[in-house]
Write a structure and sequence with these properties.
Layout: H1 6-25, H2 32-48, H3 53-82
């Protein structure tokens, strides 16, 4: 089986941008991974392997999942660098003594 070429890898940010555009148009964020995979499969059929359906599906799923991972990684990095992390489980909370305990 052939490896995914440079043009296939270039589809990852394209799929990511299309998903972001669709989110801004109004699709719920929770459907964005499914939309990314569907767009990846469509790109697989149209661009990566138009004559080989199993290969098109496989490479399309790879492109879609890569777009999801790229978005998630970038989002987590930006949140951690900006200090907007929602990870309250790392913070130590002081223990309060109950009244009457010594």
């Amino acid at each position: 089986m052939e490896a995914i070429n440079v043009y296939g890898i270039a589809l990852v940010p394209v799929v990511m941008a299309m998903v972001e555009l669709l989110k801004r148009v109004g699709i719920p964020k929770k459907f964005s991974p499914i939309v990314a995979i569907i767009l990846g499969i469509l790109a697989g059929f149209y661009y990566l392997a138009p004559d080989d359906p199993p290969k098109a599906i496989f490479l399309g799923i790879v492109v879609g999942l890569s777009a999801i991972g790229l978005f998630s990684g970038a989002k987590n990095t930006i949140e951690n660098l900006g200090g907007n992390s929602n990870s309250n489980y790392h913070k130590v909370k002081p223990v309060r003594k109950r009244p009457g305990s010594h």
